[in-house]
Design a protein that fits this description.
Elements (H helix, E strand, L loop, with lengths): L2 H10 L4 E6 L5 H7 L11 E6 L5 E5 L12 E5 L2 H11 L5 E4 L15 H9 L3 E4 L1 H9 L3 H30 L4 E2 H14 L2 E2 L5 E4 L17 E2 L4 E10 L8 E8 L6 H26 L6 H14 L13 E2 L26 E4 L2 E4 L3 E4 L2 E6 L2 E4 L8 E2 L1
Length: about 400
């Protein structure tokens, strides 16, 4: 835990402190930021308060009194609920505006870890509970240069795996050999492992109307055969194996097998591609001008273009998500649909840009790239698909 950095962030937000709280590992964010053992046994509530200045304070149950001993600060213990409430009042004396892993109206559910009852208890003590979302982004999503390098290392390897996957489909269909979605997924999984990458699940290969299901996952039992004439989508993600600090690379490409795309396919693809580029451009212009930009603004750039083209109802998910050591990280998402994400897209963060249009019973197009920001610039980290792949 970097106490100095945390207290500096608290002061930057003009808050009195940041209260961390957990019971039964309900808040994994707290464990990562504080550097606690995420696998330790926790059966009783603990609280850790970091004031804007001064010494932190701990409140732990007497039968688990060692749980926060790795952290700096004074310690109080409780057994009864009355002692717990009195201990909280003492711990927070003099502090009014307090950050917690809380989101008003559950607007940013990704950081909303504190239960309503605990918030009610603290409000009854006269405390103003505010969201820690922006501070969580700073400590969870901001990457080191070494981490950024792991992303680019994964990018080079995974792009080769994707190319091999498309070649596998081409060779199978041209030579009359049977293949299916699940078999292609297995081929891609083997490729990921072979080049020293790791993926937690997937990837995904969707053929024909299955590509209209944005979270389709083929199984051996349900897998669809892939044949000449099909529309195909591959969504693939991985990071360097055996490196907990490594950052994911996540992309989606689409193509047609053994034919030219139809006019409708071309039109849908071009709309999605242009929406992708609108979001990229909005982010890049903001960074070049050193202007802050929130996740919802980057989503709007893509969404407005798709809506103007008459396809708003077919764009059923956010434009992108934060990427860090977790595939869906705790920084700003490009989202003004599922949430109104007011978190800023911070420098030294990574995220996807992936608008998509889905037509059940027909096909779906998603065009996904990743970006990394640094002061003054935002770059796309891998190749960009600008036309449908011909397989």
């Amino acid at each position: 835990m970097n106490l100095e950095a945390i207290q500096s962030a608290i002061r930057d937000q003009n808050l009195d402190g940041w209260l961390f709280y957990d019971h039964h590992h309900r808040d994994p964010i707290a464990y990562r930021i504080l550097g606690l053992d995420e696998h330790s046994f926790i059966s009783r509530r603990w609280f850790y308060f970091i004031p804007a200045t001064g010494e932190p304070k701990k409140l732990v149950h007497r039968i688990e009194f060692l749980k926060l001993d790795t952290l700096p600060g004074s310690k109080a213990e409780y057994s009864s609920w009355q002692e717990l409430e009195a201990g909280l009042a003492d711990m927070l004396e003099g502090a009014t505006s307090i950050a917690m892993q809380y989101s008003p109206r559950n607007a940013i559910m990704y950081i909303s870890m504190v239960d309503a009852g605990t918030v009610e208890l603290l409000r009854s003590m006269g405390k103003q509970i505010v969201s820690s979302a922006d501070m969580v982004s700073h400590f969870e999503a901001v990457l080191t240069e070494a981490q950024i390098e792991t992303h680019f290392a994964a990018q080079k390897r995974l792009d080769e795996v994707l190319r091999a996957g498309f070649a596998c489909i081409t060779n199978s269909t041209r030579n009359g050999r049977n293949t299916d979605e699940h078999s292609v997924v297995g081929f891609l999984q083997q490729g990921i492992e072979r080049v020293g990458l790791f993926t937690d699940h997937g990837p995904n290969c969707s053929a024909g109307p299955n590509s209209a299901d944005s979270h389709y996952e083929p199984t051996a039992a349900s897998s669809r055969s892939i044949k000449t004439g099909d529309f195909v989508l591959i969504d693939i993600w991985a990071k360097l194996a055996n490196d907990p600090s490594a950052v994911w690379y996540d992309i989606t490409w689409t193509g047609v097998i053994g034919r030219e795309p139809t006019e409708r396919e071309q039109h849908i693809f071009a709309t999605v591609r242009d929406a992708r580029d609108a979001s990229i451009s909005t982010i890049q212009k903001a960074y070049a001008a050193n202007q802050p930009i929130a996740g919802w603004q980057a989503d709007d750039a893509a969404r407005h273009l798709i809506e103007a083209a008459g396809f708003g109802a077919q764009f059923t998910h956010r434009t992108g998500h934060n990427i860090a050591t977790e595939l869906h990280g705790n920084g700003a998402h490009l989202d003004n649909l599922e949430t109104h994400d007011e978190r800023l897209i911070l420098p030294y963060t990574c995220f996807s840009v992936e608008p998509g249009l889905y037509f059940p019973g027909e096909f779906g197009v998603r065009n996904e790239i990743d970006m990394i920001t640094r002061p003054g610039k935002a770059v796309v980290t891998g190749p960009m698909q600008n036309e449908l792949v011909r397989l």
